[in-house]
Amino acid sequence: MATLIIASISDRAGKTALAAALAVKMGSENTPVALGKAYSVGTADDADAATFASLLPENPAVSGAIADIASKISGISKSSGGSKVVIIEGSSDVQFNLELAEATDGLILLVARYGEGISGAARKYGSRLAGVIINALPRYRGEDVEGTFAADIETAGTKLLGTIPDDRRMVAPKLGQVAEFLGGRFLSGEDQSDRLIENFLIGGMVLDWGPFYFASRQNTGVIVRGDRPDIQLAAIQTDTTRALILTKGVPPVEYVMYEAAQAGVPL
Questions:
Q1: I want to staple 36 with a disulfide (CB 3.0 to 4.6 A). Which of 62, 116, 227, 243 is the partner?
Q2: CATH homologous superfamily for 170-263?
């Protein structure tokens, strides 16, 4: 039985999503898999661990402290028809992950962001490191990663297994969250507060070419003064505009309110 530990260099690097994706993918291919999360002794039940259990409700759950996980894996390995693969979300702490790997005889998969000190981490993990995945890779860094970076980490004793491109939808706030953070209020379209805002554009002096400017990004929240109906209308006419964020405390004119309602653009 193989045990794979998903580790990272920093927090919020994508360990939970990667562990869940791998487990669900293997499960869909009829590979018996157990999924769980490791946490320190005395830590309260983890929300991610509960999510893992709900993803594969018929499969063994292996969340808990290191000793508990090792015991659960031992029990699974002795049962007939048990899981062939165990995937455990580790942490960003090297020593913790190494202790987990030793206790479970597992290999470590390091998920990291572009620019983090991956070569140094690879040397610390040594033979326990199975490889590296770069998450949230910026659009124009692919050639660099597959060339110089891959060679550098190979020198450090490991290899690049793959990359996951940056996707702004993964970090995009909802429109309602933006309004709450700014202390703003909806003038219209509050029923669309669950819309994701992937990009923000400032409505400056863009008059005639405004629609071209506002169309340069997808799913945008356009920040514009409340007393600039010309710019507001240019933004509303663009299919990629998801909301207008009006500043200066000035409400828009009635015609803008009408056009925004017709286009389904919240204010």
A1: 62
A2: HprK N-terminal domain-like (3.40.1390.20)
| Cα–Cα distance, 143 to 134 (Å, whole number) | 13
Q: Where are the beta strands (DSSP E) in the chain?
A: 2-8, 33-37, 85-89, 107-113, 129-137, 160-165, 199-202, 220-225, 241-247
Give Dmax (Cα) for the chain. 72
Taking only the tens place, the pLDDT of each residue in 166-188 is 998 888 999 999 999 999 999 99
Averaged pLDDT, 143-162 = 91
What are the tens digits of pLDDT across the range 12-55? 999 999 999 999 999 888 888 999 999 987 665 678 888 888 88
Rounded Cα distance, 204 and 226, in Å: 12
Per-domain residue ranges of the chain: 2-166, 170-263
Buried b (16+ CB within 10 A) or exposed e, 8-19: bbeeebbbbbbb
The phi, psi pair for 141, rounded to 5°, reads -110, 5
Q: What pTM did the predictor assign? A: 0.79
CA 64 – CA 71 distance, rounded (Å): 10
